[in-house]
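Hi there, hope your week has been kind to you so far. Thanks so much in advance, here it is:
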Amino acid sequence: MKKYILIAIAIFATGPLLQSCDPTYSISVSNQTSDQISVIAYTNASFHADETVQIHPRPDDPDWVAFNINPGSTVQCGMAIGGLWDDLPFTQLIIYTPQDTITAKNTNEVFALFDWDSSGDLKIPYQITIAKAAP
């Protein structure tokens, strides 16, 4: 009987060690153009920009931030555990390029800006790519 109790204790003790955790993926905005772009975002607690970019909060509402992304550069804006929806770092987004303005007025529109693969799934890691417009 003692043997079965010891086996049960061993199984319960090692069980948590064998469970998998959800993976963590970066969330970023990438500038693949030859010009600097400006980003204005309404952020939340999930927004964490890397230290390589200068973040400028709006004085009257610090949830609105602005930052620039140099040509060929990427700015990390947060991390997602598993899926993107719960960890979306911004709920509104405005991106200014010399040729165009991209505006996402709500989370659904922000979500649609992320890169998708040919099968209709989000590309991982999660990234919004601003690319040179086709001629």
Q: What stands out?
A: The first strand starts at residue 24 and ends at 32. The beta strands are 24-32, 37-43, 56-58, 61-69, 74-81, 90-96, 101-104, 126-131. The chain has a mean pLDDT of 88.
